[in-house]
## 1
Amino acid sequence: MESRRILGIDPGLNITGYAVVEAKNRQVKIIEAGVVRGKARGSLPARVREIYDGVRDVIETLKPEAMAIEQLYSHYERPKTAIIMGHARGVLCLAAEQAGLPIHHYSATQIKKLLTGSGRAPKSQMQLSVQRELGLAEIPDPPDVADALAVALCHYYLESSPTQVA
């Protein structure tokens, strides 16, 4: 069976989690996972440029064939947060589009439900689920990495079994 690389992204303006997993023979293994950090005090254009450059480098180096990204979620009481996060998601999608990668969007509740059975699972439960699914010795940390791995796993499961309800 042919292998397939998936880039999972947990978008953030300060910390963007990423994970490239490879699926082969119904097994999924981590190729690389980490974070891309934007300057905490830099200007917005400088911060989104760093995110773009970091993810573009991951794409060029690890050559995924698809990108799965968590959809934007923000409480309606904080519309400014949603707007700022939109900038980060925009440059992440741009990097994938420029590389010719198909982009797949998943809601946080869809990802959580698929991996834990509950769309309202806390971060700690998600980290444990990712650890179990990938057979890791330790819980993925920081949580942004665990979230990126979860997004990649969600895409893999839905792609390999499209009739599965998420």
## 2
Amino acid sequence: MAEERYDIAIIGSGPAGLQAAINASIRNKRIIIFGTEELSHKVVKAQKVSNYLGVPLVTGIELKNAFQDHIDKIGIQITYERITNVYAMGEYYALMVNEKMYEATSIIMATGIEYTKPLKGELEFLGKGVGYCATCDAPLYREKRVAIIGHNMEAVEDAKYVNELAEKVFFIPMFKEKFTLPADIDIVEDVPVEIIGEEHAKGIRFNNSELFVDGIFIMKDSVMPDQLVPGLELENGHIKVNRNMETNLPGCFAAGDCVGKPYQYIKAAGEGCIASLNAVSYVNNIKEHQ
């Protein structure tokens, strides 16, 4: 059960999400913004940014620091939690973080474009032996065989947690960083190509082998927006929006790289501004008719 209902929830802490948060905050809306401690990891990686109005010829780190300084002065704090699902509930949206739920009248998607392409069979078996949240669903696989396909270091901690419940855990690392796991977790050094099964997922096919398990967790940095928000309409792999940054779902807006090219920081910030202004108007209209 959510403790309070926010006016606007923003998913993503890049230029689009931060600009949306700034605009909504200035207009006295109760907001919550979900992101990472890196704030905007794509910005940080830029060696030189030459086309951001007002801050010429800066490094990505300098631009990121300017973003941080701006939100600090306004009093905006990032919530460092990963949203696993968003559900349209009619009058509001329910945003799920493991077993916790947040509520918001309106949402702004600013999730970027770094999505991991689904494996063959992944979407077919989602909810049928395949899941994205190990801490949510691990108890379902108590004393069973579980495979974890990890795309980030967070998956290592998830594997340790699942290992406390499952009979056997197999870890398939999809990243290059060094990590340490308990000795009883088997590490599979092969590339997964397909989730196999019939009515229920029963295993993973690799380039050179197959592994049969009862459950499979795929731990990604981000998932496709229509998997995150059921019913969200996409167009050419991006969230479909109009000039007001409205999606096909009432009260759901989107901005930044997730809505399409060009993938430019200043374009993302501008769209975040538009999305926020229209989300504010949407919330105001809802309140006037309550």
## 3
Amino acid sequence: MSFILVAVLVLGAIGLVAAVVLYVCSKKFAVKEDPRIADVAALLPQANCGGCGFPGCGGLADALVKGADAGTLDGLFCPVGGQDVMGKVADLLGMAMANSEPMVAVVRCNGTCEHRPKIAEYSGLRTCTAMHACGAGETACGFGCLGCGDCVAACQFGAITINNETGLPEVDEDKCTSCGACVKACPRKIIELRKKGPKGRRVYVSCVNKDKGPVAMKACKTACIGCGKCEKECPFGAITVTNNLSYIDPDKCRLCRKCEKVCPTHAIVAVNFPASKPRPVAEESKDDGENVEQIKTEA
């Protein structure tokens, strides 16, 4: 009986000493958290999507408070909460928040099943990452969308779906929060966050193929061939051609759509514009035929 009593007393003493040590350490090494961090975090949507550049809403809240103390909130923005949430945060911290133009995810590939036929059959793990690691995929284009839906799985807001007819992902603008998860998930970097544009209108090159013109056109009928016609046509210097690929700068683009009209492969797309009058069939066929002949001649 005495052995049991001694053991109990010894364990009790050890527990008491440990409790005292822990209490002293908690007081000595305590880190005081600014109460504003919790208040800011409560205003954030708690999506923890990482679109703000921080691992979660708590990290953004901490950065916002520190930014307020430094006198600026530049570069800090919650894409999910948008301008409304950031306005509330700015009011809470007594800061002014600059207006940020809404962004939206854009799929820069127009290589549908019709334009980019399959030349092989993939039977491995059905993910874009796995297929990309194995090579070009099931088509001759080593730059285009693989259609396995990694972006769909990454989106927490149900804003992306795969169109069964085209085999390409489609973005629902009303659901997209521009968190950037789909951008990170795409192994071929065909998804880009671009300015939503006035009335949701925007113009961009729906291709990321960097092969030379004839090679790109052989793989996909709507590929950018780097001919430079759009660059020459743009009166605002918004288009540049690098590595056989055109790119439209959304900050310089004035949505005149002149580039769209001169693109021989229709790689440039305009979204949410009123329907334009169709070109005469004979004229369109003649132009496309001349462009194709020019490409073959250059090859």
## 4
Amino acid sequence: MSVRCVILDIGGVLEITPETGWVRRWEERLALPLGTVHERMHEVWQAGSVGDIGEHDVREQVAERLGIDGPQVEAFMADLWEEYLGTPNNELIDYVRGLRGKCGLGILSNSFVGARERETALYHFDELVDEIVYSHEIGIEKPDPRAFEAACAALGASPESCLFIDDVAVNVAAAQAAGMQAHLFEDNARTIARIAAHLDAGSSLPGRAPLA
């Protein structure tokens, strides 16, 4: 029997990440039409999310595509990371910390190059869970089934023994299709109750629908 595991997303789950409006502020500052930043940077954002580009190259592309200089690039990136990192969801983090040694714990995150270093420094997720699987390090993003396979493999667990928590419905559905238990994060209370039920129930049948 595979050990029971809980695998969590970061942004919107372990981190509270509301939109800060930073992109629109930069468009206004640079006198650019609405949507210009994402249009020009889309390929860079995608490359960074699967590790096809490094942080230095990201900065060079920001400067070239937006026509800004060094200090502006650093300010732009600081605003990006401020929204990306958000603030810690302390209630859920404290609960997960209390599970150490009771089950396997992992993180599966669609990420951006540089995320591990910053999240480790700020939130110490490396001390919270056993394994962290970042999309920019494995070159695969959710909802690709290979991302869920990588997370289960990192923990040495079978999919049916793992409960995956995410705030994006398509990722939850993809995890279920991969044979995992899955729960759509909406609030801490229901998520904590779902984790507790998963651990109390032991190994569940593959394909079982998640509890609300």
